[in-house]
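Cross-posted from the bioinformatics board.
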Amino acid sequence: QLQLQESGPGLVKPSGTLSLTCFVSGASIDTGHYYWGWIRQPPQKGLEWIGHINHSGTTYYNLSLKSRVTISIDTSKSQFSLNLGSVTAADTAVYFCVRVTLDRGDPAFDSWGQGTLVRVSS
Amino acid sequence: SYELTQPPSVSVSPGQTASIICSGDKLGDKYVSWYQQKPGQSPVMVIYEDSKRPSGIPERFSGSNSGNTATLTISGTQAMDEADYYCQAWDITTVVFGGGTKLTVL
């Protein structure tokens, strides 16, 4: 059974870099059938897509975050990571890692991690 | 940028049919997915490719998409279906989510 587990600091200082890792178990991350991505949800608000990556490193990013975001993948460790730079309080959110399915070319998110709350505060 | 619009809230009586709409320009030309999120939990996909149900999702969940509107329909709504629901689509290399609809079963 596929499991995704986020890990990383729960508190980041303003102007710093938010770094999270998602460990994937129960399925191979090294497959061309899926992408692996990040979605966030500010407290009491809706979902915001951050971006996703495939096993060969092809990435798609939310244009509003693109200048600050890097998503990388390490298939040997079955994990992928998110780096978000120059953070502000507006980046405070629950961050979910997800598996992205593209059966017909359009992405959908069929498995989600439990989410991790990251606060940006001094 | 592309936008998806959902009503903030929908109410339904137990056993009745709930319909949650998602509107966007020429949305019928795109595939729409729907996610259910209960308080304190991660979202769960309940519909993908407009009308397909993932394994384990009850048959009372169905979807359609045509023109500028996609609809999530819950037949015979149960108390356990009370949750936030989000639609999602893909537009020119960008994922877009609707703002979410809170479904109240009362």
